[in-house]
C-alpha cells in the first residue's frame, strides 16, 4: 500500500510552556551594609556575617517551592514530571497575548468568540477547526500532557495553526492563566473538552481524573463565574455516567448513580458541579454525553485505534465478552457527527445571567446524549477492521476484566434530535474506512507500520 496523505489537511503551534515563577532576588542585604560605618577591625567579622547571611538566602531560595506560595502544581500526575502551573507571561511564548487576541477575533460581528479547552485533543481539534471554518473566533488551551503520544497532539496543533487557531500551552487548573485569558478576551462561549479520558486508565492513575475532571472543571467554572459578561459553557460529559444502568436505550432521564469506573464517577461529579454553578451563579451550562467517539486524529488509548495498530503489527488483540459469553457492544459515534452536535449545542446555548460573580436570574442547564443509536459488538468492530486492513487479526476472546468497562452502551438521542437538530449519519464501517485511511497516511505505509 502506498503512503497516503493525512486526510485532514485542513486541521493546526507555538511551543510554549508555563514556566517557573522567577522570584525577585533583590539585594536584601544592601541596606544592612549601608547602615554600618566602616571600621578596619570590623572587616573580618563583617565578611563572615555577610557570607553567612548570603549563604542562608541562597539556601532559602534553593529549597523553597518554586514560585510563590500561591503557585499550584500538578506534580507527579504524569510520570513524575513536575510542572509549575503558576504562569509567567513570558513563558507563554513571544507575542502570546497578541496571538490570543488575533485568534479570538470572529470573521464578522455576529460570530462567537470561543475558548476551547483540550484543543489539541481529538474532539477539541475537530471542533476548533469547524468553528474557525464557519467564522467564529477560537482560542485553544491544552496542557499537552503525556497520557498518550504528545507527537499526535503537536501534529493536531500544527494543523490548527494552519486554520489560524492559536493554542495556549497551559492547564485549566492554572487560575492565574485563566484570569489572563479572560482579561484579554471577552469570550462569548467556552467549549470545555479538556479532560482525563479513558475508562481503564483510571485504575492506574486515579488522581489524574480528580485533577482534570473535578479540580480542573471547578477552576474553569470559577474563572467563568467571575468574568463579565459570563460566557455560556458547553462541556463533555460521557456515556459512561450510565454505568450499570440496564435500561436501553440510555435516556437522559435514566439513573446515573451507579458509575462503574472512577472516570465515570468524575464525569458524573462534573454534571453535579455544573448544576451547582448554574444554580448559584447563573452560568448557562450544557453537558454532552459522548458515546465512544472515533475517527481520524483519534485517541490512541481507544480500542478501535490500538486494534488497528496491533492488527497491522501482527500482535494479538484481546476481545472482551460479557458474563455467559455475552456480547460486549458500543454505540460508536463518528467524530463529524459529534462535531455537529457540539456546534448545535453552542448555537442553542442561552446567555449566562450572572455578572460580577452574582446570579441575576435563572440560567439554562441542559444535558444531551450524543450517540449513534446503533450499538455494534466488539467482534464486529474487529471484522470491519480486518476487512479494511486486509489482514486477519490474532484474536483472543476473554471475559471482560473488572476494569471499569461496561458491557454495552446505546443512546436514545431523541432529546438532541428535537432540541439540537442532531442527526448522526455515519455508520461504523464508513467511519472506520475514513479512520484507517487517515491512520495509514499519518503513520506511514502498512509495510513501515508492521516493521515497528
Ligand atoms: O463514550 C464514552 O463514554 C467513553 O468512550 C470511550 O470508552 P469506551 O467506550 O470504553 O471505549 P474503548 O476504550 O475504546 O473500548 C471500546 C470497547 O472495546 C472493548 N475492549 C477494550 C480494550 C480491549 O483490549 N479489548 C476490548 O474488547 C471495551 O470493553 C469496550 O467495550 C472513551 O475511552 C471514554 O473516554 C469515553 O468517555
Topology readout:
Blueprint: H1 30-35, H2 43-63, H3 96-104, E1 113-117, H4 122-133, E2 137-142, H5 150-162, E3 166-169, H6 175-184, E4 189-192, H7 206-226, E5 232-238, H8 262-281, E6 285-290, E7 293-294, H9 303-313, E8 317-321, E9 329-330, E10 333-334, H10 335-348, E11 365-370, E12 376-377, H11 378-389, E13 395-399, H12 414-420, H13 428-443, H14 446-450
Parallel strand pairs: 1-2, 1-4, 2-3, 4-5, 5-6, 6-11, 7-10, 8-13
Antiparallel strand pairs: 9-12
Helix pairs in contact: 4-5, 4-10, 6-7, 7-8, 9-11, 11-13
Uridine-5'-diphosphate-glucuronic acid (UGA) is lined by residues 197-199, 238-240, 290-292, 302-303, 318-320, 328, 330, 378, 400, 405.
Which range does the strand content fall in? 5-15%
Largest sheet: 7 strands, parallel
Molecular shape: globular
Task: Identify the bound ligands.
Answer: uridine-5'-diphosphate-glucuronic acid
What is the N-to-C order of secondary-structure elements (H for helix, E for strand)?
Answer: HHHEHEHEHEHEHEEHEEEHEEHEHHH
First-residue to last-residue Cα separation: 16 Å
Query: Taking strands numbered 1, 2, ... along the chain, how are they ordered across the largest sheet?
Result: 3-2-1-4-5-6-11
Helix content: 25-40%
